[in-house]
Amino acid sequence: MTTSKTTSKANHRRIVIAAAVGLCAALWTYACGDGTTEPGDDQGTADAQGTAADRTALVAFYEATDGPNWVHSTNWLTDAPLIQWYGVNTDFTGRVSGLYLSENGLTGPIPPEIGNLASLESLYLSANGLTGPVPPELGRLAGLRELWLHSNDLTDPIPPELGSLANLERLFLQRNDLTGPVPPELGKLAGLRELRLHNNDLTGPIPPELGNLANLTYLSLFSTGLTGSIPPELGNLANLEHLELFQTDLTGSIPPELGNLASLQELRLFSTGLTGSIPPELGNLASLQELTLSSTGLTGSIPPELGNLASLQELSLSSTGLTGSIPPELGNLASLQKLSLVQVSLTGSIPPELGNLANLRTLLIIYTDLTGRLPASFLNLSLEVFQIVGNAGLCVPDTPAFRAWLRGNGTEGVGPFCSPGVTRLTNNNAEDLSPAWSPDGNRIAFSSDRDDSGGIYVMRADGANVGRLTNGADGEPAWSPDGRRIAFTSLRGFDFWIYVMQADGTGVVRLTDNAEWHGEAAWSPDGSRIAAASTRTDGGGTVYGVDIYTMDSDGRNIVWLTNDSTYNTNAPAWSPDGRRIAFQSFRDGDDEIYVMNADGTGVVRLTDDDASDQAPAWSPDGRRIAFQSDRDGDDEIYVMNADGTGVVRLTDDDASDQAPAWSPDGHRIAFQSDRDGSLEIYVIDVPGSSSP
């Protein structure tokens, strides 16, 4: 096999030599005619002189850099053609076009004679022990495209003469001991694609002239002593893919112009003196894969626009002065693999939308002011590294599902498990009523009179981000099973009627319109029917009771399920399997909880006491029913088995706790209470829940 490769190389060389001879013959004929006149030898003389000059420059280079101790020096200082000297490449005229001596044991200074290699295009001297300054004579190498001097012990300032290298594409000076400023003349290198100056003792500001490098794809200035601000002119670098300014003494704010870098893939600004807020314009960086802003003086909130970074794989905001809550828009980062929030004063709870980060593998939430419980949506994550310790009030739900999840998700440190208890979600002087969980468990709808006229509102499941959906005497919201619509009761017409709107408050449609009271809408699990309660009259306008009926989700095909004459039967609640409906009724002398088949047959009484038992709500697994009762003196929240056995009291205070609503994960119940003066929305943990 070796002989074959050698023969092939020899054949290739003969072909190249034959082609060169043919080319020379053609050029000779073209220049000198048919040979009847004596050809001039000016060009040949020039080439010979140039080759001799190159040989002289190489000899000086060999002697200055301790050539005898190089790792490889085959044919150096011999009469062999220069192309046969180790690491030397020549063009067709014999002039030196490339010098490739990286990792070759070179020591000492680079001699100024290197600037005499007039045809040099590539100079690779990296990873040696070269010392002294970068010779300014390199600026004479007009054809130079590659200058690799990195990983040496070069000192002194970068010569501004390098700005004359009009054809330079890559300038690698990193990992030396260079001092002084970055020459603004480097901004003249119109063809430059990569500029790497990191790990030097450079000082002074970043010259704004670097913003003229229209073809630049890589700019690394990290681990230097550079000071001043980031010039906004860097936002002109339309082809820039990597911007590395970390571990410097840069100050000031991040210029919003960096949001113009459409090709940028990495933005590393950590361990700097940068201050101010994160510009929302960074959310325009559609190609960005890494954004590391940790260990800076940045303040303010995390811009929700960062959620637009569809390609982002790593986001690090640790050890900053950032405050406020985690924007739920970060849950849109479909490509995110690492999220680091360590030693940062973020507050509020973790938005459940973070559970949408299907590609997340590392999550660090350490020493923050975050509170609340980990959202149930975290059970969707498959993490390799997970740390959540030292946070102000953040806790892990103490459920079998979460404990199993922690065991399988690279947990390296976990904060306390949540203690059972009551959490207040709303806090104002108004009355907040009738909580209703969205099917995904991320939001709670409720009614309130906080804005005088009242209406339906929606908030995050931790009480944050309250938004108003309707304006008027609206109440009793109920989410459709697909989360796209909300049914509610409103007095906006002749009487209290049932309406349906989109989950954002638009597209309101009235479902009932006769001269009766209608309310307490409840969706069937498949979303096709709505159960509700309505008064009945005797035809002359006299009300003689409240009964339960069902209708299609568009208000048609009403079917009455109860007919209790003068007794009120209301508050219908579908079982999760859609086969039964729980309700409250006064039919036996006081309000009790009953259950019937979805067609109104098979009525069974579940509670039997002298108190008022009301507002039944099924657990998501259909095994239990929550309800309110004043059997112990005032309204409290209770839970019983679906057959009426095993009644357990959940709340215990002197206030009225009412309107229970199970969370979709089965672990909590939202309810309304006036325990703090006015009616507000609260949640309570459900002990013994087998759900997440």
Helix content range of the residues, please? under 10%
CATH architecture of the largest domain: 6 Propeller
Q: Catalogue the unreliable spans.
A: 1-40
Put simply, the count of helices is 3
Strand content: 25-35%
Domain count: the total is 4
Description:
The model is unreliable at 1-40 (pLDDT under 50). The relative contact order is 0.04. A hairpin with a 5-residue loop joins strand 49 (657-662) and strand 50 (668-673). With 692 residues, the protein is mainly beta. The longest helix has 31 residues, at 2-32.
Which descriptors apply to this entry?
single chain, 692 residues, Leucine-rich repeat, LRR (right-handed beta-alpha superhelix), 4 domains, four-stranded antiparallel sheet, 51 strands
Helix and strand topology:
Elements: H1 2-32, H2 42-64, E1 88-90, E2 96-100, E3 107-109, E4 122-124, E5 129-132, E6 146-148, E7 153-157, E8 170-172, E9 177-180, E10 194-196, E11 201-204, E12 218-220, E13 225-228, E14 242-244, E15 249-252, E16 266-268, E17 273-276, E18 290-292, E19 297-300, E20 314-316, E21 321-324, E22 338-346, E23 362-368, E24 371-373, E25 385-389, E26 393-395, H3 400-407, E27 411-414, E28 422-424, E29 432-437, E30 443-448, E31 455-460, E32 467-468, E33 474-479, E34 485-490, E35 497-502, E36 509-510, E37 518-523, E38 529-537, E39 543-552, E40 559-560, E41 569-574, E42 580-585, E43 592-597, E44 604-605, E45 613-618, E46 624-629, E47 636-641, E48 648-649, E49 657-662, E50 668-673, E51 680-685
Parallel strand pairs: 2-4, 3-5, 4-6, 5-7, 6-8, 7-9, 8-10, 9-11, 10-12, 11-13, 12-14, 13-15, 14-16, 15-17, 16-18, 17-19, 18-20, 19-21, 20-22, 21-22, 22-23, 23-25, 24-26, 25-27
Antiparallel strand pairs: 1-2, 28-51, 29-30, 30-31, 31-32, 33-34, 34-35, 35-36, 37-38, 38-39, 39-40, 41-42, 42-43, 43-44, 45-46, 46-47, 47-48, 49-50, 50-51
